[in-house]
């Protein structure tokens, strides 16, 4: 008996083997028969694609953010001009506002 259930261990093992063979038969049928594929596999794959779409968008946004961070980190020191004073900042501490101020001062020069 399994944990107080009126089922013996050999019976559970036989059920597991039968379930494995049934699953294998189902997988082969889906892979070879177009009717099964359109009936079972394609709707399931559509649901998976639909469920993973937000994740893909998140990863794409995250990758874009990491690319921006990497570009900023590898660009070296940034020159900023605030009120006519030009200072050098490390790229890690340069703010977007400082970069905007630099690009505006470049336009006027």
From TrEMBL:
Source organism: Kocuria varians (Micrococcus varians)
This protein's UniProt keywords: Membrane, Transmembrane, Transmembrane helix
Taxonomy, superkingdom: Bacteria
Annotated Low complexity bias: 85-101
Protein name: Uncharacterized protein
Membrane-crossing segments per the record: 6-28
Region annotation Disordered: where it falls in the sequence: 63-109
